[in-house]
Amino acid sequence: MKKQQTSRGKRYSSIERVKILTYVDKYNAENGRGGAAAASRKYDVSQLTIGNWLRTAGSPSPKRKKSNVDIDKALSRLSELHKLMAKTEEELDKQRKEYAELKMML
Fold first, then answer.
1. pLDDT (tens digit per residue) in 82-99
2. Which of 41, 62, 66, 82 has its CA at 20 to 30 Å from residue 101's CA atom?
3. Cα(46)–Cα(48) distance, integer angstroms
């Protein structure tokens, strides 16, 4: 007896794929990213399926907006702030200890 093969999910025509991928690209162009999620909701297709189609089609992944921040300058300032906060916390700990000792004397 021959086993009957069952279908694994819906099959999409080339026209449907193009329509959905066009929507994804248009959405990403307008919003920067999120096109696959929006298309998934609109066309009831899983994001995984859309992602596979995008990779197969060679579509570029959406780019994040570039920051105008100077990375070296920002990292240097973060380091300065971290050191300042550590020093301030150390001073605050000393003051809390002194406060607790004085409170115990009362």
1. 999 999 999 999 999 999
2. 82
3. 5
Cβ burial 75-86 (10 Å sphere, 16+ → b, else e): eeeeeeeeeeee
Q: Is residue 54 part of a domain?
A: yes
Q: Are residues 43 and 22 in the same domain?
A: yes
Q: What is the model's pLDDT at position 39?
A: 93
Counted domains in the chain: 2
pLDDT tens digits along 19-38? 898 898 889 888 888 999 99
Say whether 83 sits in a helix, a strand or coil: helix
User: Is there a single domain that holds both residue 56 and residue 82?
Assistant: no
Question: Do the domain assignments include residue 7?
Answer: no
**Which residue, chain included where needed, has tokens 């009957």?**
4
